[in-house]
Amino acid sequence: MGDLEYLFYGLVITCITSLMGVIIGIPLGLAVALGRVKKIPIVSQLLTLYVSFIRSLPLVLLVLWLYFGIPFLGINLDAFVAGSIALAINHSAFISEIWRSAILNFSVEQVEAAKAFGMTQNQAFVRIILPQVWRASLPAIANEITFIVKASPAVGVIGINDLTRRASQLAASNFQPLTMTAIAMLFYILLLFGFTRLTRTIDYRMHQRYELI
């Protein structure tokens, strides 16, 4: 296997772990935000504590704890699963703040108008609130996605051969650190460009669908 091919497989692994972090982290962040906004006794305080704790915890320590600590509870996680979940949990705390800010800034009058037309609270949330909150949150969430990708090398501490780890291995074996890291940097730029284009496409289509242009 050539060096480029070896790095490319690392790029694929980085892409998958980052994508899993995004897919899990966004709805998890929404759930945390809703729990805090609803001011449910005890639950709201616990979720506030969760956000503060996770935001102050280094991602590497969270990765290590999930991979080596959880088995003591009788739950064995694959390295890939542990790394993806750690990314999701870490960034869900930041994403929840984005969701919460958008929800708190949402116009209450629209909810009241929806109820006047016979919508239930859940229907109003799904059809009226969520699409607009998502639209308002998308730029900040897109920015957070770039942080997820750039934080993904943390999973290398539990043996996941992501792009950064493979570049480091090749740099050590080929004695070409500048070349290997430069190629890895290019791959990261391409990956982030892809994610950016995807979020812009989603943003554009939501503009068209909800006529918010």
Distance between the termini: 49 Å
**CATH T-level topology:** MetI-like fold
Taken together, the total number of domains comes to: 1
- Fourth CATH level, the homologous superfamily: MetI-like
Return the structural class: mainly alpha
Mean pLDDT: 89
- What is the N-to-C order of secondary-structure elements (H for helix, E for strand)? HHHHHHHH
Note down, in words, how this protein is organized.
By secondary structure, the protein is mostly helical. The chain has one domain (3-210): MetI-like fold. It contains 8 helices and no strands. It has helices at 3-37, 43-56, 59-69, 79-104, 108-116, 121-151, 163-174, 177-210. Helix 1 (3-37) packs across helix 4, helix 4 crosses helix 6 and helix 5 runs antiparallel to helix 6 (121-151).
What's the SSE blueprint?
Elements: H1 3-37, H2 43-56, H3 59-69, H4 79-104, H5 108-116, H6 121-151, H7 163-174, H8 177-210
Helix pairs in contact: 1-2, 1-4, 1-6, 1-7, 1-8, 2-4, 3-4, 4-6, 5-6, 6-8, 7-8
